[in-house]
Amino acid sequence: MSVNGHSSKPVQGVDISIVKLVPRNERKVEKKYRQRIEASLRAVGLIEPLIVYPLDDGYEILDGSLRYRILLDLGVESVPCLIHSTRDGFTGNRMVNQLSASQEMRMLRKSLEELDEKTIASALGMQSIGHRLNKGLLDKLHPDVVKAFNGIKINLQTAKELINVKPDRQLEILQLMESCNDFSTTFARGLVLKTPVAKRAKASSAKTPWTQADEKKSQLLKKLQEAEQQQDFYTGLYRQYTTNLLKLVIYVRSLLNHAEVKSYLQTHHADLTRIFEEILASTEG
User: Fold this and answer.
1) pTM score of the predicted model
2) CATH number listed for the domain at residues 2-83
3) Which of 124, 162, 219, 235 is deepest in the core (most CB within 10 A)?
4) What is the pLDDT of residues 37-59, one digit of tens each?
């Protein structure tokens, strides 16, 4: 089993009395961050167990000191923990583990089994959690797609892409994703864009995947046209330059081939004569 990205011996999950837990180190955080963690713990409980190591008569907290302090203040008596097999080699994840939109939606839906929306919103410091629940989304999905979403096979963004097509097409796309073992949103969106008109869902807004794709094509075509215009401009400019250069060479050669003119230029305009000779030398190789 891997804990915070560390491969180690299997860890043991157990509920431990909070009085037996001792923080390894204290972590200073902003007040608003602590309040956010506390609100989450009040609303849905402890999602991620503490990581501990057996030490004397208790357990040293390797990861989760902040959660421990909050749970202690809340009067919690026992805490779910994972007992780690090593102590010195463990490095806790210092980055905040942000929940994805899909995980948050599932977490909130799960918490609604025991708490009402108002209580959860109040604990999280929000006026409402309706927008986080994406109400009505699952009603637009094929039952098998809902199962895939609940089973964490597809994420929230992929589910939102699939509602742009009818349920039977959603099932076809899900089956294709399973056969290719590719559950990415990019792959799903590509299949949605290939959906025939008859299998597309009624557009709920002006910005459908197809109109967005058309806009991107239009933007790309515009850029290509601008590039072609620039190419034509510089091509024409180069042609004019070569034409003018050719005329100059012919003119200079006619001047220097005329003995009297060349003599006059050498006498009165030696520098100009030398430039003319260099022009002819460069063009004649």
Assistant:
1) 0.41
2) 3.90.1530.10
3) 162
4) 887 787 767 777 888 999 888 99
